[in-house]
Amino acid sequence: MLDLPTDRPIDLRPDAARPENRAPVRIGDSEKITINLGPIDLGHVDLLVAEGVYANRSDFIRTAIRNQIERHAEVTRQSVARRSVELGLRRIDRADLEAALGEGRRLDIRVLGLASIAPDVTPDLARAAIASLEVLGSLQASPAVRAALADRLR
């Protein structure tokens, strides 16, 4: 016979599912989005999850998105080349911006992925050095820098 505690709830999750055992999520690893689905589409997703085809709704959505990205890979490849977009992670630090200003130029930055403006970049420096910023994905920047670049974001 099992001796179970009666003074607290019993956690039946596997060890990996417990919050204290999960790997920390780093900022930039994922971005939360909200979608609206009709009840029939949502029911189909739940049925596939219940049948074990997908681990959960998020797994289904991530897989569906990856499949669509792969399906349209040629269109994406051509667009990235045509737009001169940097693919992946683009770090923008104080030294980059000061160097551009020192050369008398302003930056037109285009990123598909994550653009990360370093915390030591001031709003004034960002405004002076960045002519335009187009981010297809996520932008990490302080609220003050975001506000300073609001009219330059595309």
TrEMBL record:
A Gene Ontology biological process annotation? regulation of DNA-templated transcription
Q: Which residues form a coiled coil?
A: none
Ranges for region Disordered: 1-23
The record ties this protein, via SUPFAM superfamilies, to:
Ribbon-helix-helix
Record Pfam families:
RHH_8
* Alphabetized CDD domains for the sequence: RHH_NikR_HicB-like (cd22231)
Listed PANTHER family: BLL4998 PROTEIN
Protein name per UniProt:
CopG family transcriptional regulator
Q: Which taxonomic lineage does the organism of this UniProt entry have?
A: Bacteria, Pseudomonadati, Pseudomonadota, Alphaproteobacteria, Hyphomicrobiales
